[in-house]
């Protein structure tokens, strides 16, 4: 049964490589929830979810939570869903904000909504992890920044602009579930390239409304 579970992705997601990964998802909102689900589906053996928030009514449309999940911790709800996909998954939930003292895995999926928080996370874990990917989204624009080698690790901090430079759109044009799913998919695509020892793009920016994609290189 276990071999059949992953048979259709065997040449895309190297089984032995992924078995060495403990994935940490920081923030299980719009992007992070989808990342956790996709990581479970491709067979990551150990998953850690970090978030302090609970499900509110606006999360049902933008983050894919259900009516029955209202007022429950997002980490608990997402963990339960992931266990339905793979009962053998080792899953750890941290109902709290990320702290420097928080033990994390060797592969980090940063899905927070604050540039200040991103900087805090990066400063805490930059020398401790093998793979780091940051998913950002505003309405129908998304950005995926990955750090997994010397050049991309040097590049990533340059994307951490000052908080006052962040785009501040109206609260009714912040997030859509389809953009979150696409962002999560690109984050997982970067992860599977890393697993296959393939070159990973350090910076991908996509505007769904304009049908534009820009892939940045590290000079």
Topology:
Blueprint: H1 2-5, H2 15-18, E1 22-26, H3 30-42, E2 46-50, H4 59-62, H5 74-85, E3 90-94, E4 107-110, H6 115-125, E5 131-138, E6 141-147, H7 150-155, H8 177-195, E7 203-207, E8 212-216
Parallel strand pairs: 1-2, 1-4, 2-3, 4-5
Antiparallel strand pairs: 5-6, 6-7, 7-8
Helix pairs in contact: 3-5, 3-8
Largest sheet, in brief, is: 8 strands, mixed
User: In sequence order, what are the helices and strands, one letter per element?
Assistant: HHEHEHHEEHEEHHEE
Q: Considering the protein shown, what is the CATH homologous superfamily?
A: NAD(P)-binding Rossmann-like Domain
* Helix percent band: 25-40%
Per DSSP, what share of the residues sits in E-state strands of 2 or more residues?
15-25%
Mean pLDDT: 92
Main CATH class: Alpha Beta
Radius of gyration over all CA atoms, rounded: 17 Å
**Within the largest sheet, what's the order of strands?**
3-2-1-4-5-6-7-8
What are the segments in which pLDDT stays under 50 over at least 5 consecutive residues?
169-173
> How many runs of DSSP E, i.e. beta strands?
8
Decide which structural class fits the backbone.
alpha/beta
Distance between the termini: 46 Å
Shape descriptor reads: globular
Number of domains: 1
CATH domain fold name? Rossmann fold
Q: Tally the helices: what do you get? A: 8
Q: What is the CATH architecture assignment?
A: 3-Layer(aba) Sandwich
Describe this structure in words.
The protein has 219 residues and is an alpha/beta fold. Helix content is 33%, strand content 20%. It has a single domain (2-216), classed as Rossmann fold, CATH 3.40.50. An eight-stranded mixed sheet has the order 3-2-1-4-5-6-7-8. A hairpin with a 4-residue loop joins strand 7 (203-207) and strand 8 (212-216). Helix 3 (30-42) runs parallel beside helix 5. It is globular. Mean pLDDT is 92; it is low at 169-173.
